[in-house]
Specification:
single chain; alpha/beta; globular; 426 residues
Length: 426
């Protein structure tokens, strides 16, 4: 029997991150319970760990908000997240061949959030730097070196909120394990900005429509890679999430993911649009070349319309993803409990999906996950978490956890940005 390869967070150090002026702690394997009242720093600790995986905060509007409120008053304010972690697989291939060829072992990642404040006119500039094993790397290259899956109560808006929320969720998930996805996404965004600027210029001042040809081609190259990756990944995630969801709902609900690309590379007859929720569409057999050629042709056909609107109207930046329970759109008609179960199923599916892609279990981060679950679902989830290699869970109420789970977990008490480890023998 082959042994599972493990990715494990060994040590975490925070400096001036959120309400942590300073934190330096070894992270054990197995479940870790973060216990404390509201606004004490529990969720901020999860946020720091997730930032290592994605280089993005899940609810701050900007990196500046992550810097400690006392430190940010200084002319030069720096927040740091430093982590030592073990990978038993090689780091993802990046633009640096030297990094990709390092032996599988313990690695160090350091993220610096730097705010420069001009005391004279009140202006400020915030930037971030990432060092991987002491070497400065691009953000897109750092994404995927460390993997984590995060569940927050606020993530129900992925199911219930705007398409932007669902696209962001997809991008953060896929970028962690798919080589070059983050880089391609960055190229696509820059190309889209340039193409939209040209469309607006043509609309306002006129000009030669053929100038769009170069940007059409670039957008099709990058956009087709994103669509192709989403088609394959959503299909794989759906298969895993459906099993998780059936277990969580005791077989009462069937979860399905309905991917609706703004440019749909699959030609469909008009009568197929009458019952879209009842007829799953399988695009998994489409080649990257077919998607790219079709996307390019569609962009060319839309020149007049898009010049009139001054914007690009199709492409992965306008894709949609819907969550369906027993054929019902949970974002529109589902209850909060159904949305929570669907999102939790997706998060557990992400863990298995990332393991399948990278060969290693990601670190699981769960914020107040038991708060709205009934007793049966709570017991099922805790039993599964006991088998996880490493999971960090926040709670304000230890009574939600069984005695067995609490005994087998490490317990950290967090108060006002300070951490105290519990002693089970005391």
């Amino acid at each position: 029997m082959a042994l599972s390869r493990i990715m494990r967070l060994n040590h975490l150090s925070l400096t001036n991150f959120r309400n942590f002026a300073r934190l330096d702690v070894d992270v054990p394997s197995g479940p870790v319970l973060l216990v404390g009242g509201n606004a004490q720093g529990k969720t901020s600790l999860l946020e720091a760990v997730y930032f290592l995986a994605t280089m993005i905060s899940f609810h701050a509007s900007g990196d500046r908000e992550l810097i400690n409120f006392l430190a940010i008053r200084e002319p030069l304010a720096v927040a740091r997240i430093v982590a030592d972690f073990t990978r038993q697989a090689e780091l993802p291939v990046t633009g640096s061949e030297r990094l990709a060829s390092r032996p599988a072992s313990t690695h160090r990642m350091e993220v610096r959030l730097i705010a420069e404040n001009d005391g004279y006119n009140g202006s400020s500039r915030t930037r971030k730097e990432v060092l991987l094993d002491g070497v400065k790397v691009k953000l897109s290259e750092a994404v995927g070196a460390f993997n984590a899956v995060l569940f927050l109560p606020q993530m129900l808006r992925i199911v219930e909120g705007s398409p932007d929320e669902r696209r962001r969720y997809l991008n953060l998930t896929l970028a962690q394990v798919l080589p070059r996805y983050a880089t391609v996404l960055s190229h696509y965004s820059r190309t889209l900005t340039q193409r939209n600027a040209l469309l607006k210029q043509l609309a306002e001042r006129g000009g030669d429509e053929s100038e769009l040809a170069y940007w059409d081609e670039r957008l099709a190259v990058y956009g087709s890679q994103i669509v192709h990756a989403r088609i394959q990944s959503i299909r794989e995630l759906e298969q895993l999430a459906a099993r998780m969801h059936s277990h969580l709902t005791r077989g009462k609900e069937v979860l399905r993911l309905d991917y609706q690309p703004a440019y749909d590379p699959l030609s469909r007859r008009s009568n197929q649009y009458t019952l879209p929720l009842e007829a799953p569409v399988d695009r998994s057999g489409l080649s990257l070349e077919k998607i790219q050629q079709g996307f390019l042709e569609c962009l060319q056909k839309l020149h007049r319309e898009e010049i009139g609107r001054g914007m690009t109207t199709i492409g992965p930046h306008r894709d949609e993803l819907r969550f369906l329970g027993n054929g019902i759109d949970l974002g529109t008609y589902g209850s909060r409990g159904q949305a929570r179960s669907a999102m939790l199923s997706m998060k557990l599916a992400e863990v298995d999906w990332m393991k399948g892609k990278s060969g290693e279990w990601p670190v699981l981060l769960l914020d107040e996950v038991l708060a709205e679950l009934d007793t049966d679902r709570r017991d099922d989830l805790l039993a599964r978490l006991l088998t996880s290699d490493q999971a960090l869970l926040t709670t304000t109420d230890m009574d939600l956890f069984s005695e067995e789970f609490s005994t087998r977990s490490s317990i950290w008490y967090i108060h006002a940005g300070r951490l105290e480890e519990a002693n089970h023998e005391s």
